[in-house]
């Protein structure tokens, strides 16, 4: 480190511009090459350093902080290319180095800029298609209240210019940038898009679509939908990775919400309690932020869904949280969606359907809103099972990698069972098995899968599903099962189980009676 500081003073006298990155770790010598993560991180630190400056990792900082005569300033956790976790970066203050902007602290929702897509075709008439896709992606991303989207007029100022995403990110104060291209060859069209973290230039996600040119407006809608439904979850997942690597006491309200998402998806009492602690802290940190209140409503509806005690009180608490969220931001689609679920659970199915319809009108790209619509339908006295199945399937199509996709599949399962009142119906059996294959599927999904396997004569598989259900909810009994599913159509399903002998079959296979 002392050698580096001495060299920088000598280099200042020359016209050579330099940046230096220093890391500490193991390396692998391969001939004349030096390999390993430690080397890769040093290279990334170099790219983060200002011209004429030095950036070091925390490992180096801990070794030299009391041993060199130089000031060091933290730049915080920085996501760097090809590294799964962010790196804690420090800048060594070197006289004459260009000033560098401190690491952005996420005090609010992330800003995202959709840059003009490049027309790679010789045919300049394709310019309108590229511009149309960008305009539609900008509009549809803005429906997600979790994102702040830079206006089209600002981003189109960069049309035709060299797109240096780091510079553009700084100029627009955008944490993320979407860029892409359109290329036509005959009747074939190829569209690419990338989601990039502006500060590091790291690619978070990339996609490619090949299509045939037919109806140009249908094609534009299809491509817009494909890009939007890929970008939003990938951006959210990246935000959660960043939040997970920071100490809880240094997280902003937004980051606390990101930290809670994996807990919400685990569908067990302990994880829900942990999520609630994070969300209450988020709500306290920023009293004017609606999202933590909407997600506390989500905690309540999941607690009821998995059969925890005192559902009436839990529903009442959740309704308060949902309405508080809407009082702050009445355009927050997930608040309307969670309100719909809780209203349905409280027996107000028609009001729930209205709330779910509002959620979809605000953001038709949000999978949970379609799930809420299907669930509201399920609680009606005469549910439209076609709408139930369609809502669940739309949710799965919009968010196939969603950690709670088992809930989308489960609503399809129940829709088929209500429609056919037959545990042996192929559509029900296929859906029940698919739901149980999802990681994190809750106990009731495994009980439905147990019914399917019992009917198929595979008692071993049925017992395994019952054991899994009991491990997820140790207090589970047949009476619990009857108690949780209290909606009009459930009476028919429970009666079907009794008349077909399925109820006693589950008990014989290991489910406690009471």
UniProtKB/TrEMBL annotation:
Q: Which GO terms describe its molecular function?
A: adenylate cyclase activity
Query: What is one Gene Ontology biological process annotated in the Swiss-Prot or TrEMBL record?
Result: intracellular signal transduction
**Which Gene3D superfamilies did the record assign?**
Nucleotide cyclase (3.30.70.1230), Tetratricopeptide repeat domain (1.25.40.10), TolB, N-terminal domain (3.40.50.10070)
Which Pfam families does UniProt cross-reference here? Guanylate_cyc
CDD domains, alphabetized: CHD (cd07302)
Domain Guanylate cyclase, residue spans: 1-46
InterPro entries xrefs: A/G_cyclase (IPR001054), Adenylyl/Guanylyl_Cyclase_3/4 (IPR050697), Nucleotide_cyclase (IPR029787), TPR-like_helical_dom_sf (IPR011990), TPR_rpt (IPR019734)
Q: Which branch of life, at top level?
A: Bacteria
Q: What is this protein called?
A: Adenylate/guanylate cyclase
């Amino acid at each position: 480190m002392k050698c580096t500081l001495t060299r920088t003073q000598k280099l200042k006298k020359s016209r050579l511009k330099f940046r230096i990155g220093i890391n500490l770790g193991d390396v692998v010598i391969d001939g004349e090459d030096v390999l390993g993560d430690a080397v890769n991180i040093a290279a990334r630190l170099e790219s983060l350093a200002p011209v004429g400056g030095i950036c070091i990792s925390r490992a180096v900082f801990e070794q030299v902080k009391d041993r060199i005569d130089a000031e060091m300033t933290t730049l915080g956790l920085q996501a760097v290319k090809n590294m799964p976790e962010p790196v804690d970066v420090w800048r060594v203050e070197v006289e004459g180095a260009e000033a560098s902007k401190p690491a952005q602290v996420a005090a609010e929702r992330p800003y995202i800029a959709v840059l003009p897509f490049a027309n790679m075709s010789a045919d300049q008439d394709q310019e309108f298609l590229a511009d149309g896709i960008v305009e539609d992606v900008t509009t549809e991303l803005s429906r997600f209240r979790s994102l702040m989207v830079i206006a089209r007029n600002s981003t189109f100022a960069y049309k035709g210019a060299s797109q240096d995403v780091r510079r553009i990110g700084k100029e627009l104060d955008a944490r993320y940038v979407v860029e892409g291209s359109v290329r036509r060859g005959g009747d074939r069209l190829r569209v690419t898009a990338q989601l990039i973290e502006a500060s590091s230039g790291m690619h978070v996600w990339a996609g490619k679509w090949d299509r045939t040119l037919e109806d140009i407006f249908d094609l534009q809608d299809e491509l817009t939908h494909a890009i939007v439904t890929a970008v939003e979850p990938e951006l959210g997942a990246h935000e959660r990775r960043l939040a997970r690597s920071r100490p809880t006491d240094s997280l902003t309200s937004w980051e606390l919400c990101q930290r809670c998402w994996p807990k919400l998806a685990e569908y067990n009492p302990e994880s829900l309690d942990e999520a609630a602690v994070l969300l209450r802290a988020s709500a306290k940190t920023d009293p004017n932020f609606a999202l933590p209140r909407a997600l506390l409503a989500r905690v309540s509806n999941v607690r009821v869904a998995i059969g925890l005690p005192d559902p009436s009180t839990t529903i009442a608490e959740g309704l308060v949280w949902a309405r508080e969220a809407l009082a702050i931001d009445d355009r927050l689609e997930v608040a309307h969606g969670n309100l719909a679920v809780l209203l349905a659970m409280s027996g107000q199915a028609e009001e729930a359907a209205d709330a779910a319809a509002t959620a979809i009108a605000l953001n038709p790209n949000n999978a949970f809103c379609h799930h809420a619509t299907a669930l509201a339908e399920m609680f009606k006295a005469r549910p439209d099972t076609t709408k139930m199945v369609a809502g669940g399937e739309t949710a799965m199509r919009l968010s196939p990698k969603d950690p709670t996709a088992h809930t989308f599949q489960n609503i399809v399962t129940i829709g088929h069972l209500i429609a056919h009142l037959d545990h042996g119906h192929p559509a029900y059996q296929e859906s029940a098995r698919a739901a149980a294959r999802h990681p994190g599927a809750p106990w009731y999904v495994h009980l439905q899968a147990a019914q399917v396997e019992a009917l198929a004569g595979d008692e071993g598989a049925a017992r395994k599903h019952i054991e899994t259900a009991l491990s997820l909810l140790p207090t589970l009994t047949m009476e619990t099962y009857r108690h949780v599913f209290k909606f009009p159509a459930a009476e028919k399903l429970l009666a079907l189980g009794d008349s077909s002998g399925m109820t006693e079959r589950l008990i014989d296979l290991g489910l406690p009676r009471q």
